[in-house]
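Troubleshooting entry. The earlier prediction with zinc ion gave an output that would not parse, so I re-checked the input for stray whitespace and re-submitted. Clean input:
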Amino acid sequence: MASPRSERTINRSAAAVIPLFMIAGVVYATWVVVVKVAVEYLIHPSKRYQQLGIPPRHGAAIAILVLYFILLPPMALCYLRTLQIIWTDPGYTSLGQKAEKDTAPGLEQFYTKDVFVCDSQGRPIWCEKCKNWKPDRTHHCSQVGRCVYRMDHFCPWVGGIVSENNLKFFIQFNSYGALYTTFVMIVMAVFLAERKQKAGDVQATWAVALALAAMFCLFSVGMAASTLQLTSQNLTTIENLNRGNAVYYLAALVESPGPVKSPVGRSGYGPGIVTYPNQAHQSQPLQDSGERMRTREYIILQTEAGDNPWDIGPLRNLKSILGDNWYDWLLPIKYSPCTKHDRDDSHFEFGPVVEKLKRQAGLIPQYNSEKPSRHRHKRRHRRHKREEIRT
Ligand SMILES: [Zn+2]
């Protein structure tokens, strides 16, 4: 078995070379479909072919050329956009000051939030390699030795890291790639079969184009389907690996003093309660608008194994990556909405799993009469309708 170091070298070398092969593959497919099939076979078939019952077919050639040049540019643009992000902005977290855990600065970016992912002691997650705090959903990429925001996976096919910054373009590339390769595969299969039947010959260049199209079709359909499915559940590929057993500790702000019940009784600062600033971090007083901030108290919550705290429903999960408008879903231009990180309350929006935990801990009332939930609102709406029908 390869050592992690040599595996890393192989992956990084593959990442540098494979994009060149991908581009060469598209150039080759274009040459075969446009020149060999459309021009030489369909528009100007040789005399021998015409005698064997293969006539010139201008209409078919034009249809193939038009469809080919409709399907190629979106795939190529999404691929280039994905590569561009990998080369310029793959979503590394800032390197910080490489301090030791007990004295490391930067805690205020967590303790000004209402909820954040923490360890069982209520402190943010620490990266031993970067010597820095990890914002929620950050993963340390061993291939490049950096922490990456909402990293999805390291993909040799696109030559680097797929993260929140380019996951959208990666999904678009695979989806357009699935359409493009399906089309090339159909064209090649149809005319290869016709030529074999009528002229009895098989061109190697055609067969290679068919084999490449079939291989990449399988690959891009699989990748498009799996990444879309995970995105609809708001899971990264890395989070999905340990999905069934994953348990998250979450530090949740106690906004008003009152009885709270922590399910985690192991905190070093109290029974599942953490305060900030505290003894351990007096060296970095928390500043807010120039004023020293009051002490904030956090309760440690714990999710059930397999629960995904970021699942906010399939459509909103998809929108957080693909965008709010239909054209954002199609065009590889804008970054995903989830990359803004402009929420005051958390790094990423939390879903019903966290609301339930907060309710159980007494952080939010069991019944909130001011703001009916969507379900209760719907139930009430249905009851009104029934009453209207009766009267
Ligand atoms: Zn790291």
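This one parsed fine. The mean pLDDT is 86.
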